[in-house]
Write a structure and sequence with these properties.
Elements lengths: L5 E2 L23 E2 L7 E4 L12 E3 L4 E4 L13 E3 L4 E4 L13 E3 L4 E5 L12 E3 L4 E5 L13 E3 L5 E4 L13 E3 L4 E2 L15 E5 L8 H4 L5 E5 L19 E3 L6 E3 L12 E3 L4 E4 L13 E3 L4 E4 L13 E3 L4 E6 L11 E2 L5 E4 L21 H28 L10 E3 L2 E3 L3 H7 L8 E5 L2 E10 L2 E10 L6 H14 L8 E8 L5 E8 L5 E3 L2 E3 L2 H6 L1
Parallel strand pairs: 1-3, 2-4, 3-5, 4-6, 5-7, 6-8, 7-9, 8-10, 9-11, 10-12, 11-13, 12-14, 13-15, 14-16, 16-17, 17-18, 18-20, 19-21, 20-22, 21-23, 22-24, 23-25, 24-26, 25-27
Antiparallel strand pairs: 28-29, 30-31, 31-32, 32-34, 33-34, 35-36
Amino acid sequence: MGQISGLVPLAWNNLCPKASKGQQVELKLERVERASRNKLIGNILVELGKLVKLENLEIAHDNLTGHLPTSLGNVSTLQDINLEGNYLEGGLQVTLGFLKRLAVLTLVTNNFSGFFAPSIFNLSSLRVSSLVDNQLSGSLPVSLGYSLPNLRGIHIGGENHITGTIPLGIVNLVNLIGIGLAENRLTGTIPDSLGMLKKLQTLYLGGKRDLNCGCGHVFGRVAFIVVADKTDAIAVTADIGNLVNLVYLNISNNNFSGHIPATLSGCTTLETLSLGENHFDGSIPDSLSSLRSIAELDLSSNNLSGQIPDYLEKLSFLKYLNLSHNRFEGPVPTKGVFNNASAVSLTRNGRLCGGIAELHLPSCPFTHPKDPRTSFLFKLIWIVCGVLGILMLSSPLFCWLRKRGVKAKPSLAFRLGNSIMMVSFHQLLKATDGFAPANLIGQGSFGNVYKGILYQNQEQNVIAVKVMNLQEQGASRSFLTECKTLRNVRHRNLVKIISACSSIDFQGNPFKALIYEFIPNGSYINGCIIPSNTENQRS
């Protein structure tokens, strides 16, 4: 069919026999289609309303101007109107609401303006309404969702100026497959109840102000998401990994920031991921290696850094990769998508090196991270060997210093049998029943001595606890002197010291005590412990 040019025919009534005066004319024409892209100009004349049998009207991508004739509302048989890509203007006439059979309304890329005619959303037969790229304004009618049971797609994005919130009634559009709301001025939140739309697959989001979305909770079945045009407040949350059927995600050219969500790995069916021209930072998460179906990955024009992950070369379906205008560094892989220079964009990453020759990157001046000499395990072995070597070299020096008389700091732990006993204030308090007077077995100027039972490894040890009276002058010095003396002196007539305690009591006061073996017949005089006479005589 050749192209037709010139004005829209004026004599629509020539399409049917002339009627006698007073006789109704019934035009037989059922379709006006394939008139698209024929350079038609002029207005759609009112005579179109006489085509009472007309079902399909398609005059797209031409140069039609003017308004929709109100007479179009008389063609009750109309089911499909496609006037996309013209210069039609004015409001959407209320008379469109009379087209009770209308199923598809496509008025994309025109100059329609004014408020939505609520009557359009009362067409119970309407399946698809596409009003993208016009100058429509106002808010979405509250009736949206209550009278369109068959609606499968509604697209009102582009250059429109829709304001207000998304009507809650939209959840009643149970057959809805696609929603297009991008590039408007909607505010508020996307209703969580949209998660009930079990057939929803395509979602165009966007807004100039404060549109928010908890995407993961709401759109678990969505396959196609586009967030368009500098959207300020839609969050890419961790819940996005719940979009298990997601195939296409495009949130490029926005103001998103932070790290790329690692939970994107849950979107295992994802084929296209476009995050370019945002403010994402950090590295590419390792979890994205789970995206086995990914074919296109665009992370360009962000603040991403670190090395390019090797797993990207193992994604067998990846055919396009754009990492340009970031801060990546280090070696570039050479296999998979990286083996095709025309499929990879790495410009404006000043510290990349290696890769195939066609990428024209400088050679890497350092060893590849996979070299075992620079591996983590190799470094760990060197550290361990170094520490052991230092210990071996320092042992003779330590022994030499001990022989030279260098004294180590007195330890507060002493041996009982073959074990080390560490004794706390709380243990001593329990062993002596709270330093009960009934357990007092000796008194002196520097402290009191109590009998106690200390439990260790399910064994009872009867002890004598000398609690230093730190109020007395010289008590602290006596404590240290006795510790040093009993540590360095060995004699069968001296009582064996078990341990010592230097701590804080429950009132926050300093507490010091010496713990001895209990001698049943020992004398505890002046706070000192000496063997019994019987034992001295045997000695």
